[in-house]
Amino acid sequence: MTRHIGIVWMVLSLLAVSLPLAAQDDACRPMLSSTPSQLFYELWLTSGSVNTSDLPQLSVLSSYQQLGQSALQEDNYRVALDWINPGIQLGLELIDDYQRMGYAAFQAGDLAAAQVQYQRAVAAYPALADLYYLHGMVNAGLANEDEALADFTRALAFDPQLSPAFHERGMVYFRTQSYTNAVTQLSCALQYSPNDISSYHARGWAYDALGEYAQALADFTTVLRFEPQNVLAYINRANTYRHLANYDLALRDLNTALEIDPDNVSALNNRGLVFAETGDYPLAVAEYSRAISLQPDSSTPYINRANAFLEQGDLFSALYDYTQVIFLEPEAITGYQARARVYVQMENYTQALRDLTTAVRLEPNNADLFNDRGLVYSQLEDYEAALADFSRAIELNPTNPALYNNRAWVYLKLGDAFHAGLDFARFGGRLEPDMIVIPE
Questions:
Q1: Whole-angstrom Cα distance, residue 8 to residue 178?
Q2: pLDDT at position 187 over 60
Q3: 376 with 356: CB under 8 angstroms?
Q4: What is the pLDDT of residues 257-294, one digit of tens each?
Q5: Separation between Cα atoms, residue 131 and residue 142, nearest integer Å
Q6: What is the domain extent for residue 64?
Q7: Most buried one in 153, 301, 310, 317, CB count within 10 A?
């Protein structure tokens, strides 16, 4: 069946609305109205390319679309999938069906299914900016950052003023720590959408990461001019003040955030950081403890409280908290590495070795883990194993002089003065025993 695709592309390009997936307002959801598919339907019927035998199917298709759209509007995404999919199976593929299927799958948490639907839509209609934008959002959700960036770039090729695509390009750069590029893209987003709070937030984060604190403060302050009750903006601005060691202003903003939202875990946690950095560890512990009571499944307050316990010399409390971190995030190295260091302070090298070996299994290309384990092997006087770990750490991070220092001391323990001398020479020939804990 021949369809007048060129006409449809033109109409859909004019009518399709591109909106960020993260928008909270219902009016800002990336759901297309029924208008594009209705126009497609009418164009198709009037184009002379439809056989009258198709009309019963079109009537059934319209029913499926209406039921699917109703389910989407009620946030019943699984039900929407059940209604929209049979319409597609009729073989009468309309662009809205693919988009609705992709959106419903995305909201239902099935990113793989959403990706398939948007890929079909892009293949059928490769000239719509919105499709690339939505496909990019799915790729971003799947952590396919390069693919997401390519999608957002294609979207901008068709619609150079599509501010959400600039915003998402900025977020890709931010997540990949390309902060200068993030600032550039988010500034483009603000050029076309000067009241976009999320872009001010994100650009503020990027400026903060670059150490450009004045610009970060300006962006977070702009958010507060738009929304004086925006708790996140107070927290973000407080963090920037903290990075400037302006603890009074940081506390002022965090106190304001907690006046607006007394149970805000992020504000409590960050206020704890301010107390810790100013040396008031008991107050810091109290803040982290309240955060934990409100959100016991978050690892961050446990990590921070453990660090505060360590500063107070309370090794057993720190050990407990790091164990909770491992319980909450068994596939992350943070808890294992931190707990191993506590075990080292307790001179429990066997347990430290066990934790570090688990961490190495989880991140086999992490130089710090091999260095830490090499130090533990050294304490256990297993110098051959220590040598292997320090050598691997150097392979992964050949510019770190501490690693050469550590390996040099192990060479000395093994009686290999020649290689020890080479390693000492590699970091300038300076003996820096504070870099290593090696038994005499």
A1: 39
A2: yes
A3: yes
A4: 999 999 999 999 999 999 999 999 999 999 999 999 99
A5: 17
A6: 1-144
A7: 301
CB 275 within 8 A of CB 283: yes
Q: Is residue 91 part of a domain?
A: yes
Separation in Å, CA 36 to CA 11, 16, 101: 8, 7, 15
Question: Which residue type does 122 have?
Answer: V
Residue 36 identity (one-letter amino acid):
P
- CATH number of the domain to which 89 belongs: 1.25.40.10
In a domain, 135, yes or no: yes
Closest to 206 in 3D by CA, of 231, 186, 226, 230: 186
Give the predicted TM-score (pTM) of the model: 0.71
DSSP 29: S
pLDDT, one tens digit per residue, over 381-403 is 999 999 999 999 999 999 999 99
Distance of CA 131 to CAs 15, 16, 128, 148, Å? 13, 10, 6, 12
**Max CA pair span of the chain:** 93
Contact 189, 181 (CB under 8 A): no
| CB-based burial, 331-368: b 16+ in 10 Å, e otherwise | eebbbbbbbbbbbbeeeebebbbbbbebbbeeeeebbb
Q: What is the pLDDT of residues 66-88, one digit of tens each?
A: 444 554 455 544 444 444 444 44
Q: Which of 53-62, 73-82, 271-280, 296-305 has the lowest mean pLDDT?
A: 53-62
Rounded to the nearest 10°, the torsion over CA 89, 90, 95, 99 is: -30
How far apart CA 16 and CA 221 sit, in angstroms, is 34
Q: Is 274 contained in some domain?
A: no
User: Does residue 347 belong to any structural domain of this protein?
Assistant: no
Domain tally, the chain: 1
* 8 Å CB contact between 1 and 52: no
Write out the two tokens for 430. 């300076």
